[in-house]
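User: Could you go from structure to sequence for me? I need the amino acid at each position, not a summary. Structure tokens:
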């Protein structure tokens, strides 16, 4: 072996101990390199949230949590219990979404773990919930709700991130069309409770494996006769799943899609009756809808009832705020019993954009009820804030034994409507000065024992 200068280089004979030293040398070098890179990154403050993600602070985070709480209250009234599943699963769980869908072919964050298993961050939650059903076999009917992050590698845009939050419900164990009505109406009720008024429910039926093959054959024949007019992307999609072509939003494809065969013409009498009962149930509950005969949604597991909610206050190309449908074959495809199911998922980010567009569901206040200003030197703020929080008030304070002037500035920045001032005189009199920080009612000296009742007269504890 020769080095760059052309001189012979000694050959290193590795004994078992020598091999260990070589590994250790390489490991030490890797550690040093990582430390060097970390040091440079910290020095230049180069760490940022990954593209397509963001940090959410109050009051936006409070608004999001309030929305989730409102959703939970809405669906728990219908006896849906919360479920929480892992954010990553074996990739096979999500391959059931459809090998021709963008979610599977382009958008999944998948990786090999330390045991060599092929895993994926969940791109949606229905498949995870059905996997949990197959694994644990709960009593039927099984009705659950969820909230949490999903992950898709797609182009970031308004209301769409690579890590995004959804809320949703799943109900398994019966094919009763009135369950379809319950599921759809719960989503509609939730939008109403948020104050959204300009939301349209789009409704369709996608049939089932008994009638869909004939429709797919007619659809494929129709598109192949016009393949020269389709976009290049839709021509590729046609080779794997003609139904997915209907989901194209590309302008070039729209005239062709508009004249495509309709699934409604291929439904069996039994499925036509099922869809009719869904429609009559929605009419009975006065849930308005529009028939959308080419609505297919973005995943392959949907059967029968399929629906989507569109917020008309948003741009038409990005106005879907939620949707779902039946997936009666999904449990069986994951190795479980053949169990019917239906559910929906609603995108929190897009919903909040719709609320902003309609001027509803504003950000909640995050200001405390009171701000404690302690210049007594006796550290009264520590016990007083604890007492107030126990009584149900939100209370904050200043730190570091700051001056009266500095603490008053801090109280003003906090947004609290009332300041509680404790100086030496107040400590001696076992009292507190309650000062109105936002109005013109001035201040009053209140005995410490009467403070809670006085604040209850001024505020509603949160």
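Assistant: Here is the amino acid at each position, in order:
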């Amino acid at each position: 072996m020769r080095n760059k200068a052309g001189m012979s280089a000694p050959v290193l004979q590795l004994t078992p101990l020598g091999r260990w030293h070589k590994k250790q040398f390489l490991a030490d070098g890797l550690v040093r390199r990582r430390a060097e890179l970390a040091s440079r990154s910290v020095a230049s403050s180069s760490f940022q949230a990954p593209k397509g993600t963001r940090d959410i602070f109050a009051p936006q985070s409070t608004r999001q949590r309030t929305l989730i709480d409102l959703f939970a209250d809405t669906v728990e009234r219908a006896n849906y219990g919360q479920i929480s599943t892992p954010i990553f699963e074996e990739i096979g769980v999500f391959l059931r979404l459809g090998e021709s869908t963008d979610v599977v072919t382009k958008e999944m964050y998948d990786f090999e773990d330390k045991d060599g298993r092929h895993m994926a961050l969940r791109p949606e939650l229905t498949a995870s919930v059905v996997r949990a059903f197959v694994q644990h076999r709960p009593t039927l009917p099984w009705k659950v709700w969820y909230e949490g992050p999903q992950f898709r590698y797609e182009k970031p845009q308004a209301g769409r991130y690579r890590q995004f939050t959804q809320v949703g419900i799943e109900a398994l164990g019966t094919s009763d069309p009135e369950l379809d009505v319950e599921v759809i109406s719960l989503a509609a009720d939730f939008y109403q409770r948020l104050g959204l008024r300009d939301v349209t429910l789009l409704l369709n039926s996608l049939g089932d494996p008994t009638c869909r093959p004939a429709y797919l054959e007619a659809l494929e024949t129709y598109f192949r006769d016009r393949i020269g007019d389709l976009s290049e992307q839709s021509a590729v999609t046609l080779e794997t799943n003609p139904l997915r072509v209907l989901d194209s939003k590309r302008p070039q494809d729209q005239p062709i899609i508009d004249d495509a065969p309709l699934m409604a013409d291929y439904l069996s009498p039994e499925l036509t009756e099922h869809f009719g009962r869904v429609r009559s149930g929605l009419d009975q509950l006065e849930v308005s809808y529009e028939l959308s005969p080419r609505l297919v949604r973005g995943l392959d597991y949907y059967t029968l009832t399929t629906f989507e909610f569109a917020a008309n206050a948003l741009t038409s190309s990005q106005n879907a705020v939620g949707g779902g449908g039946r997936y009666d074959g999904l449990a069986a495809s994951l190795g479980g019993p053949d169990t019917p199911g239906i559910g929906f998922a609603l995108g929190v980010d897009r919903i909040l954009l719709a609320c902003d567009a309609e001027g509803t569901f504003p950000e909640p206040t995050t200001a405390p009820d009171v701000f404690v200003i302690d210049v007594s030197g006796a550290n009264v703020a520590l016990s007083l804030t604890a007492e107030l929080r126990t009584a149900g008030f939100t209370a904050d304070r200043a730190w570091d034994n700051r001056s009266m002037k500095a603490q008053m500035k801090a109280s003003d920045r906090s947004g609290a409507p009332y300041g509680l001032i404790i100086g030496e005189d107040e400590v001696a009199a076992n009292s507190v000065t309650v000062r109105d920080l936002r109005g013109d009612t001035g201040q009053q000296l209140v005995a410490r024992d009467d403070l809670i009742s006085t604040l209850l007269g001024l505020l509603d504890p949160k």
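One structural detail worth keeping in mind: The chain has two domains: 60-211+267-358, 370-458.
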